[in-house]
């Protein structure tokens, strides 16, 4: 394990900026950092197609600064980064299907705006620790399992190509300009505050919504392997990455609980105490951009930071359903 500061004390009083801070993972990170005493600025454009939701940060609304701003706005970003010590860069267009129907928007947010942010960072807060939310999508269809960081990158959709470029810019700016960036390649992340309105974030969201509304949901194929990370585990990984000096300039897989989709569907029904699903073939337009089986080898991050996922799927699904049962109206 590395010689890193402890999350319990390191963020107290520190200026922390989260792009995408009103989104699913960004807001959960914000709640945790508020608990740790950080001086928080959340940047989000609240585009209705994405996962941003002011309700996500309701418990800390009076303790954080919120800027409804767009990371594509070069001057705006420069004005907001003054004094930033930690930049958690999570703002993104996350829908794989939308990236195929509107590739230019995906390019603008997931690629070009990343360059904008890094240029601003280099000028305005060159000492800031930067953690970028990358994705396992950039590997494409795995050649072997579990997938480690040495696996070739061969994205199967526009989103994957742009996220790959966004990640590469972070590492390039580290190597060339000394920007203190780390990239975490997340897998399917789920939990309270995720977007459940539609499948733009992950299929898990629509499954949760369906069982809560007493409807059956669809499982495509069902034999595929996925690993699922509960959001609190992902948040812990962001905090530890930001504090590990040896993580600067590096990329890490972050995994979770590995199971077949049919088993996951059973777990959703069990966690809800009822419900059902149908198994069918992949729709053709989805099949073309599907990655098949995936689960991560995240040994590198575990060994460096001592991190490991702590919340198994059964428990994470139960917590998620409890949350949405209470707050469903805020997410539809
Ligand atoms: N949830 C997952 O399973 C998963 C998996 C792999 C990677 N990731 C990555 O994690 C990050 C967070 O994802 P999430 O699941 O919380 O999604 P999310 O949609 O809930 O969060 C993204 C946030 O970014 C904001 N945003 C989008 N474009 C913006 C722009 N131009 N300017 C300002 N804000 C903008 C959105 O409004 C949203 O609140 C993303 O970078 C995503 O690619 C997520």
Explain what this protein looks like in three dimensions.
With 332 residues, the chain is an alpha/beta fold. It has one domain (7-331): 3-Layer(aba) Sandwich (Rossmann fold). It is built from twelve helices and twelve strands. The protein has helices at residues 7-10, 24-35, 74-80, 96-101, 103-124, 158-177, 203-212, 231-243, 261-272, 284-287, 299-305, 313-327; strands at 15-19, 39-44, 65-68, 86-89, 129-135, 180-186, 188-190, 217-220, 225-230, 251-253, 257-260, 277-280. It has a seven-stranded parallel β-sheet, with helices on both faces. The protein has a three-stranded mixed β-sheet with strand order 7-9-11. Helix 6 (158-177) links the parallel strand 5 and strand 6. Helix 9 crosses helix 12 (313-327). It is globular, with a radius of gyration of 19 Å. The N and C termini lie far apart (43 Å). The mean pLDDT is 95. Nicotinamide-adenine-dinucleotide (NAD) binds at residues 20, 22-26, 43-47, 50-52, 70-72, 90-94, 109, 113, 133, 135, 163, 186, 188-189, 195, 201-202.
